[in-house]
Design goal:
Elements (H helix, E strand, L loop, with lengths): L1 H7 L4 E5 L5 H8 L4 E5 L3 H8 L10 H8 L3 E3 L11 E4 L14 H13 L4 E5 L7 H12 L8 E5 L18 E5 L2 H12 L6 E3 L3 H31 L4 H8 L23 H11 L5 H27 L8 E5 L14 H10 L4 E5 L5 E3 L4 E3 L3 H7 L2 E4 L4 H4 L13 E4 L6 H6 L3 E4 L3
Parallel strand pairs: 1-2, 1-4, 2-3, 4-5, 5-6, 7-8, 9-10, 9-13, 13-14, 14-15
Antiparallel strand pairs: 6-7, 11-12
Helix pairs in contact: 5-6, 8-10, 8-11, 11-12
């Protein structure tokens, strides 16, 4: 295929559809070596990018502006991608109100692929979905364009492995998995990623294997987090510190991988992606019980967190109905502003039905929206002076720096710690009631 020579000579023109947490960093990485054009359906985001302003924690406006002046262009319409040699699709794969896959973004991207597909092109899907998606949607689109996948157009799937806020692992030093509809598609896709991925490219048998790889990675995490969450509930009753147990078990040099309890899981990978496999598995007559049970356990931790808040307030002789509770942390993980599927959303909704008032704080996320209203992050000093109970949901570095003395003499009468941020005995010594998940 001629595309292989274009890649090796850095002359390939690369188009990226979807400039979010996956697509934008990928597009900019490729733009260091290739001419790249990115398309984003969101008008506001497209305008921000065109003016050199980044909306992601992991992409600085300085780097964006620099590449916009040289090798990166923002497409105004999908037709601007028609001259691309490579098309990479990095669009969201949410679920609907029933928990079933919402493939509308992939369907729309497939229409774009159909419009611009031409002989000698390479098309890659990176969006996480159930095995068979690449061929079902993009393969069909290529055929509808009068072309044959694997013959006229190389077609592959390569799962994204983006971890927002991770300062250690990035696109360059994270191995890339690639699987195509045929051997040549796999080889040309691997050749493309090899130009930016220093950790190596792992080629697998086909698209379905690559798609399944991503699903397994996420289910593995979800199941193990659910296991330790369930054990945490047991150990709480037995007066055993789960965190100490896991740390001790981690000293075993083989056959154990540490996972810790928490208030629930967030982001896209763990809470949503496994639902895609469940959906497909049922079409084969199989009910993936482990997957479903792990989701139920992880979801139940939100309610358990609220129950800990109620217990802590009552132990501090504060009526929940007259209490102000501060939710500390809106992002689903530390040191980022991303609130997608954050357990804070459900916890805030449940708390609002039990207590007088809920206020929120996050050093990165400016707000969070529940099904009923938007909550804006308030200054930390104000929260410490106005809340009867602090419930720590996210382990931001700013929170790890707090000491018992920061709560002493304030209105705070109770603390619920879902991330093992504090020593319960030290908190108790300043006269503040303490509750912690798994403690």
């Amino acid at each position: 295929m001629q595309i292989r020579k274009a890649i090796e000579s850095s002359k390939a023109r690369i188009g990226v559809v979807g400039l979010g947490y996956v697509g934008l960093p990928l597009a900019l990485e490729f733009a260091r070596k290739f001419s790249v054009i990115g398309y984003e359906i969101d008008d506001r985001k497209r305008e921000m990018l065109s003016s050199g302003k980044s909306y992601l924690d992991d992409v600085t406006s300085e780097v964006l502006a620099e590449l916009l002046e040289s090798s990166f262009t923002i497409a105004e319409t999908p037709s601007d991608l028609k001259d691309c040699d490579v098309l990479i699709i990095c669009v969201p794969t949410p679920v609907d109100s029933n928990g079933d896959p919402d493939l509308s973004y992939i369907r729309r991207s497939s229409e774009i692929a159909k419009e611009i597909a031409h002989r000698g092109m390479l098309i890659i899907l990176e969006s996480t979905s159930y095995p068979g998606t690449t061929e079902e949607f993009l393969g069909t689109a290529i055929k509808d364009a009068g072309l044959k996948p694997g013959v006229d157009v190389a077609l592959a799937f390569s799962p994204e492995r983006v971890d927002p806020g991770n300062t250690k692992y990035n696109i360059r030093n994270t191995p890339k998995v690639v699987g195509g509809v045929d051997r040549r598609s796999t080889e040309v896709a691997a050749a493309l990623y090899s130009t930016i991925v220093e950790a190596g490219v792992i080629s697998v048998n086909d698209c379905r294997t690559a798609e399944a790889t991503k699903i397994v990675e996420n289910i593995f995490r979800g199941v193990n987090i659910a296991l330790i969450n369930e054990l945490a509930l047991v150990f709480e009753k037995m007066n055993i510190n789960t965190w100490d147990v896991v740390r001790a078990a981690s000293t075993k040099p083989f056959a154990f991988l540490a996972h810790y309890p928490g208030p629930g899981v967030g982001g896209h990978c763990i809470p949503l992606d496994p639902l895609y496999l469940s959906f497909k598995a049922r079409q084969y007559g199989i009910e993936p019980r482990f997957v479903e049970l792990s989701r139920e356990v992880n979801e139940s931790m939100k309610r358990h967190t609220v129950e800990l808040v109620t217990a802590a307030l009552e132990a501090a002789q504060v009526s929940p109905r007259s209490a102000t509770v501060a939710v500390m942390g809106l992002a689903y993980k530390k040191n980022i502003s991303d609130t997608r599927e954050s357990p804070s959303t459900g916890i805030i909704e449940m708390l609002s039905a039990r207590v007088k008032d809920v206020v929120v704080h996050d050093p990165f996320a400016i707000s969070i929206t529940t099904s009923t209203r938007r909550y804006d992050s308030e200054p930390l000093a104000k929260v410490l002076e106005s809340a009867d109970c602090l419930v720590f949901i996210t382990d931001h570095d700013e929170y790890t720096k707090l000491a018992p003395s920061d709560f002493a003499g304030k209105r705070v009468k109770a603390i619920v710690d879902t991330r093992n941020l504090f020593d319960g005995e030290e908190i108790s010594r300043i006269g503040v009631e303490y509750r912690g998940i798994g403690k």
